[in-house]
Amino acid sequence: FSNHFFYRDNPLLTFPSPGITDSWYGVHDVFVPDGRYDAGTARNNRKEADRVVDLVFEHFRTRPIGETLGVAALSMAQADLILRLVEERKIRERDLDGRFNERPKEPFFVKNLERVQGDERDHIIISIGYGPTVESGAVPNRFGPINREGGERRLNVLVTRARQRVDLVHSLRATDIHSQQKGGRLLRRYLEYAENPEKAF
Question: Structure pTM?
Fold first, then answer.
């Protein structure tokens, strides 16, 4: 995706992956149909955060020891909510304490978009957070740093943090995005890519 949309004439040499038939790898679309963005005081999406936390605990219960994980959210409010929910669930499910701390050089993290640069993990879960609002169900095309000048560069960083798998968790559809900002337009393209990579190109 980044080679196609961010670099002129596809100059990057990407590593081929011969022989990989495991469907776990790659970019995976995780749509949360009942997710709602609280555009008021909270400015987060609880249903989407709950789904992210489920994926975090599923990873540590099912994936091989040593396989690293990180969570990146588009907004600080969404990242803070996800981190709080993870910590609350860790208290209830203490059998996984060791899994969260097994790779001290690449520890599990939850960060917002602007803090994730430089981090790389085997598995990255991305939470869009923004979506249909609690009040009206409409989708305001406000996507935080993505819509600012240079937002497309932040998006490029975000979608290239994973070595093996990306789970893109979202409550809005690509067709909900009508932003004229470059970052917003490319976010729409990435949602289309997660849903159908061949069609996106």
Answer: 0.93
